[in-house]
Amino acid sequence: xxxxxxxxxxxxxxxxxxxxARRFDWEMRCLLRHYTWIELAHLGEYARMDLIDxxxxxxxxxxxxxxxxxxxxxxxxxxxxxxxxxxxRSVHARLPANAAPAWHVxxxxxxxxxxxxxxxxxxxxxxxxxxxxxxxxxxxxxAAEHTRSLMPGYTxxxxxxxxxxxxxxxxxxxxxxxxxxxxxxLIGAVNLSPLGAGAMAGLELPWDRDRLALALxxxxxxxxxxxxxxxxxxxxRSAAELAVLGTTLSRFLxxxxxxxxxxxxxxxxxDELAGISSAMPHKRNFPVLERAxxxxxxxxxxxxxxxxxxxxxxxxxxxxxxxxxxxxxEDLFTTCxxxxxxxxxxxxxxxxxxxxxxxxxxxxxxxxSTVANRLTLDHAIPARTAQVIVGTWIAAxxxxxxxxxxxxxxxxxxxxxxxxxxxAGYELDVDADRLRADLDADLDAGASLDRRVTSGSxxxxxxxxxxxxxxxxxxxxxxxxxxxxxxxxxxxxxxTGTEDDGPAATRTDPDGPAATRTDPxxxxxxxxxxxxxx
Length: 534
Known about the structure:
Layout: H1 13-30, H2 32-48, H3 54-66, H4 69-73, H5 83-92, H6 109-144, E1 150-155, E2 158-164, H7 165-190, E3 192-193, H8 209-215, E4 220-221, H9 225-230, H10 233-260, E5 267-268, H11 287-310, H12 319-324, H13 329-349, E6 351-352, H14 354-363, H15 368-379, H16 383-401, H17 414-423, H18 432-439, H19 460-496
Parallel strand pairs: 3-4
Antiparallel strand pairs: 1-2, 5-6
Helix pairs in contact: 2-3, 6-7, 6-13, 6-19, 7-10, 7-19, 10-11, 10-13, 11-13, 15-16, 16-17
């Protein structure tokens, strides 16, 4: 018997095979444990409302917990390829006739499906946040080793000021730490239970939505019944967070690609992260950087796809929104997982070529601003005029040397600077030794880094302080993650009484079914160590 009197025939073969059956299989892998959890929460409410007696409730509870995916899948055809109908039929088949007539009364699939998807989504967000925190720690650790590793800094792709590799990596660590904090804040913000909203307008029985939310690890019920079943804003917000993270990482990866190339050669990667050319035996390529950066683009594309899937749809429960629009949400998470793993490999394996980077930094005119500052602070030359004087001093030296000779700090003289000042109307003696120290970007000779005294600067002790701040923020994020995971674990134990197949907050077996890319829609149950496509 079909689970409806309104339709007399089962779904058409094409709909069943190409759409419903694939979705059914995915939900068996990824949502059945959440449906089980929800069933037990509902069962507790039926018992509280005296609609099911205690012995019958206990019997149903045992049946629900003992059901296997194969048990439920056996009912697929009779249940019109709907997992919730199949679960209902599986339980009824194991109960005496009319043993629990009130079981499933005043229920809708709409809020149950919305609830199960959100329960799965928060687990995926927790797992992603864990990977982001791991990358932040890796980066901070490598940064701490290079707080005195000199290199040129750049703006507009031109040499700017001397910095250190540790200073640069500290920026990456801070950005990734911020992403982790945002993900945990998002988990807290969306952790509101849709259950009890019914189809879209609420239910007729006095369901205690606060108790249902507590049983499922939610902070509270979603206040509005229509929002409970209509909104998939958590999907869009998740996609936005990951797209922003990917965009940020793409910029850092662009620098690493440049710095690993022949024009800079500031960094190197181990053989296991390198590639070769089939025609140029001298080459040692780093396609892992391009792979990682390419994956960041997919995050943006998938976020746009998820947004378009909801745009211009009615604000109510719709299959188009609840199932079809989330078709590639699993790809979003697995792609992000792969990207984060690759970036972590790169950062943990990077070798900074300190000698070469230092030589390049010392050969550039990146401390010229110090000379201009000195003219103002020591000789009272107006700041803008001092900038013009230093600029003309450099331009004159460039013309004198010609296009074929590189202008390096040692080719600039105190005599020429004094002449430039005189042309601007300022007569002064320039201390040649002090000028040489000001122009030298070397850590010991010119102490160029130590002159950057403001907080957050490239000065080594300021970088150490920044990294200490990152470490403190990561400890706080760890505590938040532990509390969020513990809320789910405790709710699972309280509602099911078993730890088996409890809510996962970490990645699992990469060869499991959740690692595939052919899921028909919705978020996957777990994230694989190998990640998604590359």
